[in-house]
Amino acid sequence: MENYYAGNPLNRLSYLRSSASFLASALDSPKARFLALDNLSPLSRTGTDGVRHLEFLSFDDVKHYIGDPHHVFKGVDGKNDADVPALALLGVEGDKLGKATVGDLTPDEKRHYFLNQCSLVFLGVDERSAPESAKSLPLSKPDENSTLETHSPYGEPYWALDVSTFADLKAKVQRDGVKFMELRSGAQTMPNEEASIAAEARSLIDWNTRNKFCPACARPIRSVWAGWKRCCIPGELAGSGVDGADQPPCFSRKGVHNFSYPRTDPVVIMAVLSSDREKILLGRQRTWPARFYSCLAGFIEAGESLEEAVRREVYEEAGIVVGEAGYHSSQPWPFPASLMFGCWGIAKDESTIRTDLDNELEDARFFTREQVLAVINSSKPLQMTREQVSRLDGKEGAAAAAETKDGKAGDQGDFLMPPATAIANTLVTAWATGKLFNQGPGGTNTSKM
């Protein structure tokens, strides 16, 4: 099955991310579409029917902030350091410095320039309108003549651009019904394919924004491969380190290193059932919205399989020992960059629940099928406000405002479920409606682990 934020329609063309000629042609193409993000909130439009859509900009709208497309991707492969001094200074940061090339900058100016460039990410091309015979395939390696027309003649290029520091652009593009909106608050009113594009954009902009210094040598790093790789600033192969002393060249300049590429954090999220499979274990954190319960979840640790992670997390959070376990489906979760592995597990003994082992949960309990179905059938779809999203994330200040007095579910089991955009909702609903284990051909994989 396909969960929300999955089903991205774009062909990412990863083999062309290091081709300067292809990227330049995709950047200033009249078909190019730019998704602007302000502090990770995508520019969106809400129609009169209440449906939310992404609002895209053209290259003319953003070219002042990006620069000349024929210069933007020079050195995009991050390899040829000898060519760096001749690179033109681009965009708003280049205008501020008032100089022509990188070679004209002092070492401090060069670091400032690369560190403060806005994040620009190539998301892929939309080829849904292309005839099957014309859809792009890696038939040949990219070269100096690669263009959008030679590799994807029907493709519409999609880009993500961080505009957080561009106050004038943000004021210009926002109007009635169009504004920057947090992706999770009201997300389920956005069509799934658009949400999946926004998810890709949010994760990549977040990664580029967070990672400004090399984990290997602590020097500043810059974006290459159109936002899909970060490496040490060219020309910084040796010389002064962060403490002013001479340092050898950074070892990350040779070979492949996982910290140079966007990371995805694997997470298990579990529908844990009683031994007779007639009840489901749900829990809540103290900072969550009142009466909000969800499936237990946790990060997969190093050297751990999916089934081991399921059993460990359930035991640590609720003191429940899980025996049989299985996989249901997965979901990309761009907050900031997780891949949720939806699983199920069967408790060996549900008589004793403990939440004092790692103190992550305020409450955990087994709910009957009747209780869950009553919530599904009687509740309106849960729409997350910004405040509720902050509580779920455990952000500073949110905990103080949490409704802890009446936070737990009542004796009758009345509670709130996660919204339909979350895989937790998928797992709980599938169990409650008898569909967790009996998917047919083409449905979910419920293989035992």
Automatic annotation (TrEMBL):
<feature type="domain" description="Nudix hydrolase">
    <location>
        <begin position="262"/>
        <end position="390"/>
    </location>
</feature>
<dbReference type="InterPro" id="IPR015797">
    <property type="entry name" value="NUDIX_hydrolase-like_dom_sf"/>
</dbReference>
<dbReference type="GO" id="GO:0005829">
    <property type="term" value="C:cytosol"/>
</dbReference>
<dbReference type="InterPro" id="IPR050241">
    <property type="entry name" value="NAD-cap_RNA_hydrolase_NudC"/>
</dbReference>
<comment type="similarity">
    <text>Belongs to the Nudix hydrolase family. NudC subfamily.</text>
</comment>
<keyword id="KW-0378">Hydrolase</keyword>
<dbReference type="GO" id="GO:0046872">
    <property type="term" value="F:metal ion binding"/>
</dbReference>
<keyword id="KW-0460">Magnesium</keyword>
<dbReference type="GO" id="GO:0019677">
    <property type="term" value="P:NAD+ catabolic process"/>
</dbReference>
<dbReference type="GO" id="GO:0006742">
    <property type="term" value="P:NADP+ catabolic process"/>
</dbReference>
<dbReference type="InterPro" id="IPR049734">
    <property type="entry name" value="NudC-like_C"/>
</dbReference>
<dbReference type="InterPro" id="IPR020084">
    <property type="entry name" value="NUDIX_hydrolase_CS"/>
</dbReference>
<dbReference type="Pfam" id="PF00293">
    <property type="entry name" value="NUDIX"/>
</dbReference>
<dbReference type="InterPro" id="IPR015375">
    <property type="entry name" value="NADH_PPase-like_N"/>
</dbReference>
<dbReference type="Pfam" id="PF09296">
    <property type="entry name" value="NUDIX-like"/>
</dbReference>
<keyword id="KW-0479">Metal-binding</keyword>
<keyword id="KW-0520">NAD</keyword>
<feature type="region of interest" description="Disordered">
    <location>
        <begin position="391"/>
        <end position="412"/>
    </location>
</feature>
<dbReference type="GO" id="GO:0035529">
    <property type="term" value="F:NADH pyrophosphatase activity"/>
</dbReference>
<dbReference type="InterPro" id="IPR000086">
    <property type="entry name" value="NUDIX_hydrolase_dom"/>
</dbReference>
<protein>
    <recommendedName>
        <fullName>NAD(+) diphosphatase</fullName>
        <ecNumber>3.6.1.22</ecNumber>
    </recommendedName>
</protein>
<dbReference type="GO" id="GO:0005777">
    <property type="term" value="C:peroxisome"/>
</dbReference>
